[in-house]
Amino acid sequence: MKKLRTIISGSNFFQLVVNILMFAFLLVELYPIIYVIICSFSDPDAVARGDIILWPVGFTLRGYEMVLEYSDIWTGYANTIFYTVAGTMINLAVTLPCAYALSRKDLRGRKIFMIFFMITMYVSGGLIPGYLNVKSFGLLNTRAVLILIGAMSVYNMIVARSFFSTSIPNEITEAARIDGCNDFSIFSKIILPLSKPIVVVMILYYGIGHWNSYFNAMIYLDDRSKFPLQMFLREILLQGKIYQEAINSSDISPEEALRLAELAKSSELIKYCVIIVSTLPMMIIYPKLQKYFEKGIMIGSIKG
Amino acid sequence: MKYKKQKKQKFKNQLKVISKRWQLYALMLPAILYTALFAYKPMYGLLIAFQDFSVRKGVWGSDWVGLKHFERLFGSYWFPIAFRNTLEISCLDILIGFPLPIILALLLNELKRARFRKTVQTVSYAPHFISTVVMCGMITMFLSPSTGIINKLITALGFDAVYFMQEPSMFKWIYVLSGVWQGVGWSSIIYFAALSSVDPSLLEAADIDGATRLQKIWHINLPAILPTIVVMFILRCGQILSMGYEKVYLLQTDLNLFGSEIISTYVYKVGLEQSDFSFSTAVGLFNTVINCTLLLSANALSKKLTKTGLF
Q: Which chain A residues have a beta carbon less than 8 Å from that of B284?
């Protein structure tokens, strides 16, 4: 009894409990993802019966083949890559110079500019005024709108500003100025090359935002050929589009009917596969950039 | 006279400094232009909340109607429901979603083996990178009454399948718990980072005094990250009414609407689906005003209690 007590109060027991808790947590976070992966390779009937636990049942690649043939997905993919790359480039071009200028202590009116930007974090026109604004610029249903809207997140700008003012010593700027550099070349030739971590963090934050967003596309775009991937995913995952298409079609040849019947049966399978296909790039990239975004969040937590 | 001259001189000097640094202002120009055109310009569109706005007549030509739309707002059937749901879901989200990342960070900090800790961290970030659309897709698939894994589990245990997505009272739990799954790892980063600043000599001193692990967490680690916790809490309070409408909108079904309609989805439906621009803007404006009030009061309260605040 006494022994048990010392074990419980001792740090070994504590360590054990923490380890068990964390292991359980690991499983909870991981299993849903693994489950989706397994299901994407399994016979849809087995999934529907609930036979899937840890291993694919009735292994098949049919779902992925069908996704490959589904042209909307690839239209969406191409559009999303375009929006992500172009949008992120604009984000960087707007955010970083502004953040750097605001990090300079010799900038007159720094406070006023900060207030000017920060007000927009808390006050906004809201949905309809924003919509009318976009309309007044004639940007409705253009690709430009998805790139321009959200060209700068004030939060990200403040993170970048904190990085510039804490990680880049003032002396570097001073020395460059004495050597005859103007502020443009100080920023582009000296500051930027020294700021790789924050550039990576910004690319990551903005890039993920573009890749995953659907709401702006839903509001501002009508044209299906301009839709990003997430819009098509919404149709497939949440509006049951593939299934609907399959059961609504009539007046078709027997072969076509057979194909559609298979499509209807596989609509669940396709869902699992599109989840994997659309999320895979993020899942591959993020562990490699982990140290950067951890750092980015730390910088963001420094106030002022 | 002399004073005026001095002032003029000072002003001239300032202009000189500014003109010497004109390139810094040029660097800010894109950001200023964007903010003016896409953040401030729409704010003047808020005026239409006080008008019967028609697109044809524009903001200056439409008729002014005073507070008509705000009166309509309080008399409407859906607004009180949406308001209550927003508060309920948001508060539940804070109650459950706010402490968990802190607890996770404290536990992670206790893990001795660095490799295991890194693994847990990396895995726990993964759901953060899943898009809202995919997340909602996963939720509806997992909760499906006929084929979802959760209901398979429930029926295997001998209970009846639950129609999660059609039950208004379930909605807030689905929203909050899936949000925890997706965000707890990511949100813990900031607390974990704050924990690395704890002075090791404090922990050593506590060891010598015979403090247990739990005592060390309670008396040393937790106070060390308290300022971070406070700042995060204030920020969170400022968002009580501006919760993630993207996810809510996707999870709504006709049947769970009584539990899932929130202010921002209501704004969307009234505004863009029914094209009642003025009314929708009035709802949005009301929302913004309450948000700012909440943020400012949370900040004031925290300044009084803990002497730390945002501004």
A: 125-129
pLDDT tens-digit map of A197-235: 889 989 988 999 999 999 999 999 999 999 999 999 999
**Best to test chain B binding among A127, A186, A270 (most B CBs inside 10 Å):** A127
Among the candidates A12, A35, A60, a domain finishes at A60
Of A133, A282, A297, the CB nearest to B193: A297
List of E strands, chain B: 51-52, 63-64
Find the range with the poorest average confidence among A65-69, B21-25, B51-55, B259-263: B51-55
Q: What is the pLDDT of residues B59-79, one digit of tens each?
A: 777 888 888 889 988 888 999
What gap in Å lies between CA B283 and CA A181, rounded to an integer?
52
Chain A nearest-CA distance from B104, in A, is: 8
> By the CB < 8 Å criterion, does B119 face chain A?
yes
The model carries a pTM of: 0.87
Q: Taking CB atoms and an 8 Å limit, are B246 and A101 in contact across chains?
A: no
- The set of residues, in sequence order, having a beta carbon less than 8 Å from that of A218 and lying 6+ positions away, is A231, A234
Parallel, antiparallel or unpaired: strands B63-64 and B51-52: antiparallel
Domain that holds residue A38: 1-60
Is there a single domain that holds both residue A9 and residue A101? no
Chain B residues with CB under 8 Å of A270 CB are none
Instruction: For residue A11, tell me if it sits in a domain.
Output: yes
| Nearest Cα residue in chain B from A296 | B190
Domains of chain B: 2-64 (no CATH), 68-306 (1.10.3720.10)
Residue of B nearest to A268 (CA): B141
CA distance A274 to A68: 10
* A279 lies in some domain: no
Upper half-sphere CA count for residue B287 (Cβ side, 13 Å): 32
The answer as to whether A234 is a domain residue is no
One domain, residues A105 and A55: no
Residue where a domain stops, chosen among A30, A60, A90:
A60
Q: Compare CB distances from B28 to A98, A278, A279 and report the shortest one's residue.
A: A98
A35 and A83 together in one domain: no
Count how many domains chain A has: 2
| Token pair of A45 as six digits | 């009937």
What is the ipTM, given to two decimal places? 0.86
Closest CB from B107, B140, B246 relative to A22 = B107
For B64, the 3-state DSSP assignment is strand
